[in-house]
Design a protein that fits this description.
Number of helices: 8
Largest sheet: 6 strands, mixed
Structural class: alpha/beta
Shape: globular
CATH architecture of the largest domain: 3-Layer(aba) Sandwich
Oligomer: single chain
Mean pLDDT: 91
Low-confidence stretches: none
């Protein structure tokens, strides 16, 4: 992947314009944060990116997480790698996971302090624990780049930083919708501010401070 581009993008919902027109390019190795108030269009923009770029290996971490409550933490993380295995292998894993997959997934759970929940149903977890499961699944997917919608909204302090660090290590190229402007400035190298479905700011993080971003809220 050299770069990804959206040109003259327009998105309507219910007959009303929610995005665009706008142009946006994502370069290989670039970590971009989308910032702006709720309803500005960040989630819609991420959704369009995922639709347009899915065939290029986009890994998605949606705001609603998309986990299966009745399945264990292990199996939800394993789902990130379903495409790497045959149907029979995945069916066997549902009943009796292979040691190689347990050994691959356990370090991720340990890093996010949820290894003790490995075989617990996701439906029994807290919001913060579920968000860490979704992050582990995104990393296990090993996509070409990451699109994440509020990946740390249920996390605070060092744990939020740990998840962002892990996602950044797994995906040098990413677009993260974020509300925490301080973390956006620290963990991404470019900020795109969205207001009323349009790009109101597009700048390298080293040229910005928190006050610049708070004007979008």
């Amino acid at each position: 992947m050299t770069s990804l581009a959206l040109t003259d993008l327009v998105a309507d919902y219910g007959g009303e314009r929610v995005i665009g027109p706008l142009d946006l390019t994502l370069a290989h190795g670039e970590r971009v944060s989308l910032v702006g108030k709720s309803g500005a269009g960040k989630s819609t923009l991420l959704g369009v990116m995922q639709q347009r770029w899915r065939h290029l290996g986009a890994a998605l971490m949606p705001q609603q997480l998309g986990l299966v409550p009745s399945l264990s933490v292990f199996h939800n993380v394993y789902m990130g790698g379903l495409a790497r295995h045959s149907t029979w292998y995945n069916l066997v894993t549902l009943a009796r996971p292979f040691r190689r997959d347990i050994d691959a997934i356990t370090p991720l759970l340990e890093r996010f302090d949820i290894a003790d929940k490995c075989w617990a149903p996701v439906g029994e977890l807290s919001g913060g624990q579920s968000q860490r499961v979704a992050a582990a699944r995104a990393i296990h997917q090993r996509g070409g780049f990451l699109l994440a919608d509020e990946p740390i909204s249920a996390l605070d302090g060092p744990l939020a930083e740990r998840v962002l660090t892990a996602l950044g290590e797994a995906y040098p190229t990413s677009v993260l919708a974020m509300h925490d402007v301080e973390l956006a400035l620290r963990f991404t190298d470019r900020v795109v501010g969205i207001a009323d479905g349009r790009i109101a700011l597009d700048e390298a993080t080293h040229r910005l401070n928190a006050r610049d971003l708070l004007e979008l809220y």
